[in-house]
Amino acid sequence: MSPHEPLMPMPAGRTVYVRIFLVALGTQMFEVLLTRIFSVTLWAHLAFVAVSIAMFGMTLGAVLVYLFSAWFTPARARLNLALSSLVFGVTAAWSLDLHLRFAIVPSDVTSPLSQLALAYGIISVPFVFSGIATAIVLTQFPRHINRLYAADLAGAAAGCVLLIGALDVVGGPRTVFLVAAAAMLASLAFLRKAAKGLGRQTTMGTASVIVLAFGATFGLALDPSVLELGYAKGGARDRVYYEKWNSYSRIAVAFPQPELPFGWGLSDTFQSTDKLHQLRLNIDSSAETVLTKFDGDLAAVGHLKYDVTNIGHYLIQQGRIFVVGAGGGRDVLSGLVFDQRQIVAVEMNRAIISAVNGVFGDVTGHLDRHPKVRFVNDEARSYLARTPEPFDLIQISLIDTWAATAAGAFVLSENTLYTTDAWKLFFARLTDNGILSVSRWHRRPIPSEMYRVVALATNTLRLEGIENPRTHLMVVATRRKAGEPADTPGVATLLMKRTPFTEAEITAIESTAKTMNFELVIAPRPSSYPDFVAL
Fold first, then answer.
1. Residue-wise burial string across 524-534, b where 16 or more C-beta atoms lie within 10 A, e elsewhere
2. Dihedral Cα 442, 444, 449, 453, nearest 10 deg
3. Other beta carbons within 10 Å of 24
4. Nearby residues of 461 by Cβ (< 8 Å), 6 or more positions away
5. pLDDT at position 106, please?
6. pLDDT at 533
7. I need a surface site. Which of 107, 213, 418, 510 has the fewest CB within 10 A?
8. Cβ atoms 180, 236 nearer than 8 A
9. Residue 205 contacts by C-beta under 8 Å, 6 or more apart in sequence?
């Protein structure tokens, strides 16, 4: 053959499909895993930069293959594939460990050339070598590019599915060992095929390097301080009693301690020195719910009657209650305290339900076994859309978590619970005298969250043909306590009724608000809050 005659493209061979499948599987698992990790260590709005990091790293890898084409030749293709797969797997584990060790405070990030950029740069290294491996396969075996690309896509899809189970079984950071295992298998398989063109000693030496490198990487698993959260959201991670990861979030329960009764918006008329055993369940290091010790004695949790989030219960007797976001079970307990007939509590995160009713069931009193209570593992809108059952009270009490959702592409878009479509569904599932109760933060001096909730309720009522929404709405809020700064946030609850509030109901809420020292922000009667009246 003439030295100037072009070489015929190499045949891929069946095993190449399996190897690129493994590389793609590991790459996609690592990319999606990072969204879960970043949601805990950073914030939800930074979590999905992981997608950009993966694209950047893999593109850089492909550019390197192009720029150094003298090295990335067809003759070296399988050896380069073995080495790039090796480095991808090793750096995936070690770069993640580095990220978990060094705290990043998102609020301190004021420049692109910051600690955040450094962290993202370190995490992008594994994707560079994954990009190199993918580029080699797609350029050195052009005769089979359609099938190889199909294998690549199939591997990525399998990685997405596998990660769901891996997070549940293995846990968060240590799932990266599955990524490393996929890379190791691909590396050894590529080396086995490359051995035909290498000497025995070279092959054995390369194989030894691969095995030693992965041995050192998997040795991380023996050290409990490695691949563990060293910080979260810029602060030191607290010691936890229980921790569980899944595709929704990471939940962690702190060590139990007696403390004063917890409430989102407790009335300042509630005075108690008796401490309760309460467990704080943290979600992605940003949101929190409380598991209250309950042994069947409703008087012991009577503080729930003083919480502004439960103001709607004062108008409902022996009703059917629908709780959106069961969390630690506070709203379920509230329904029992007010002697409601039935409570249906929907929680989309199975790990939270398992913690409340399983792991800590002896503490919470196994609420799922109470004859009046039914827990459902589902998404609230989906469940309501499928059930014809009407409810007397639908309760949504500060359930947002600020966790990166599974639908990562929509991380900066609307929360689907706060849309007109959702509220029309809630409205449709209320009984004739049913009430929708929505509690949000009431920040001062401009309570923008409550402005929005009132506007949303007004729009929903108008779409339902109600010309005077004011007669269907009431808002009750906590007061600023003496000595608190003027901008101290409070909590407010909006009540939206399917039919106009009766005089007796308005009087009942006014009386309760006065007794509890709450503010009646808006009601069918005259209000001193012109902005809310205008809305």
1. beebebeebee
2. 70
3. 26
4. 427, 469, 472, 473, 496
5. 60
6. 87
7. 107
8. no
9. none
Output the pLDDT for position 350.
94
* Token pair 């060293």 in the structure block, residue: 230
* Contact indicator for 424, 414 with CB cutoff of 8 Å: no
Question: What phi, psi does 258 have (nearest 5°)?
Answer: -65, 135
Read off the tokens for 131.
């990009």
DSSP string computed for 241-290: EEEEE-SS-EEEEEPPEEESPP-SSB-TT------EEEEEEEETTTEEEE
Alpha-carbon distance of 474 to 258, in angstroms, equals: 36
Written as six digits, the tokens of 424 are: 């029309």
H/E stretch holding 477 = strand 473-477
Closest CA to 494 of 407, 397, 389: 397
Write the secondary structure of 357-371 as one string of H (helix), E (strand) and C (coil). HHHCHHHHCCHHHCC
- Strand, helix or coil for residue 236: strand
Point out the residues of the chain with pLDDT beneath 50.
1-8, 407-412
The SS3 of residue 187 is: helix
* Tokens coding 137: 């396969």
CA neighbor of 18 nearest in space, from 141, 127, 148: 148
Tell me how crowded residue 210 is: count the other CB atoms within 10 A of its CB. Answer: 22
* DSSP class of 104: -
Strand partners, 323: 345, 395
- Tokens linked to 250: 């990471």
Written as six digits, the tokens of 230 are 């060293």
Q: What's the predicted TM-score (pTM) here?
A: 0.86
Q: Distance of CA 129 to CAs 58, 81, 159, 486, Å?
A: 7, 9, 18, 54
Distance, CA of 63 to CA of 67 (rounded, Å):
6
> Residue 503: is it exposed, middle or buried by C-beta count within 10 angstroms (0-12/13-18/19+)?
exposed
Could you tell me which of 495, 396, 491, 487 has the C-alpha nearest to residue 449?
491
What's the pLDDT score for residue 2? Answer: 44
In angstroms, rounded to a whole number, what is the distance separating the alpha carbons of residues 427 and 109? Answer: 43
Closest to 485 in 3D by CA, of 431, 524, 444, 446: 444
Closest CA to 360 of 247, 245, 256: 256
Residues 6+ apart with CB under 8 A from 506: 474, 523, 524, 525
pLDDT value at position 408? 47
